[in-house]
Amino acid sequence: MNDLRYPIGHASIPDLVTVERRMQAAEQISSFPQRLAAALEPMTAEQLDTPYRPGGWTVRQVVHHVSESHMNGFIRCKWALTEESPTIKAYQEKGWTALPDDMTAPVAMGLSLLQALHQKWSYLYQSLTDEQWNRTYFHPEDKQHFTVAQSACMYEWHGNHHLAHITGLKERMGW
Fold it and tell me: Can you give the pTM of this predicted structure?
């Protein structure tokens, strides 16, 4: 049986990100909101409140989590571009998903946020120089530095990871 927690496997972030690889990540980030919206379009409120796996978040929580996580990712990118290898602030994603807005708010809110955020993020990515793609931030929980390019690969994976949670659930449930 497939691992329902990691339907596309764990993230594999290269130490050195090629120009082609970062372009792929940027394109995936650009198209993610539309792909997510397409996966959610036919879902009912009851389906949105179904966990993607036993003990997992509901589809609604996943959508809000992704928008919040990617907000943090965008801010981390901006910090890396404007400060000298800043230490980023980690956040308690499980706590955030338990708050009322993640539990009950319409998924349209999360989608709208993602659409605007990813449009702005993609615009920023298009303007970066090689030097800027290689700027770093320090993640205190992982205890390592990440380049902007590695971060793009990470958020590409993150979006696809959660999209697979939703599409996998729909497939298993016959929706």
Answer: 0.96
